[in-house]
Amino acid sequence: MPRRPRADTEVDDEWEPGPSAPSSGRKSKKAKVEEDIGKSAPGADEGIEVKTKFPVARIKRIMQADEDVGKVAQVTPTAVSKALELFMISLVSKAASQARSKSAKKVTAAHLKQVIERDEQFDFLAEIISKVPDAPVPKKEEDSEGAVEGKRKRGAPRRKKKEDEES
Question: Where are the alpha helices (DSSP H) in the chain?
Fold first, then answer.
């Protein structure tokens, strides 16, 4: 049954929704969360554009796989997805700056390990990174000269002379 206004309250017949008010009525909680989260894209301050999204359905399935988790609200996996995005942006951007400081062209596991060891925020990953080997120590110039001699030159292999041609 439709609700009627109570007799003791006044009804404002002249009120019209403004341009900021939604025309179709109330927004769903999911739409509100997505709108709030989408205002400033994660990593936009650093000039990072995130094109990939974590799959919300898979996050919900993983959450429900735990026996201790009961019902999962519709907005929860979306919020977890955005939190994962922010976490990854933070970790990878710090690892990239670490790689730049070492003048490396690629971000390696060693760079990630150094970031995790130095930043208190990532202490919960300490057990996982203990399995990752430490960064290799850069070799001195003396050692690198001997290594160059042992390397093969790239290019076309030399042609062998046929003994038939000489005879």
Answer: 29-38, 56-65, 76-101, 109-118, 126-129, 141-150, 163-166
Other C-beta atoms within 10 Å of 140: how many? Answer: 8
Task: Find, among 81, 75, 31, the residue nearest to 56 by Cα.
Answer: 81
The answer to whether residues 112 and 95 touch, using CB atoms and an 8 Å cutoff, is yes
What Å distances lie between residue 108 and 76, 81, 105, 124, 126, CA to CA? Answer: 32, 24, 9, 20, 17
pLDDT tens by residue, the chain, 167 residues? 566 555 555 555 555 555 555 555 566 666 665 665 555 555 556 677 777 789 999 999 999 999 898 888 999 999 999 999 999 999 999 999 999 999 999 999 999 999 999 999 999 998 998 888 876 666 655 554 545 555 566 666 677 666 655 55
Q: In whole angstroms, what is the distance from residue 154 CA to residue 148 CA?
A: 13
State how far the alpha carbon of 131 is from the alpha carbons of 20, 46, 88, 127, 128, in Å.
Answer: 53, 31, 20, 8, 6
Q: Give the whole-angstrom CA distance, residue 100 versus residue 52.
A: 24
What would the two tokens of residue 160 be?
A: 């062998």
User: Structure pTM?
Assistant: 0.54
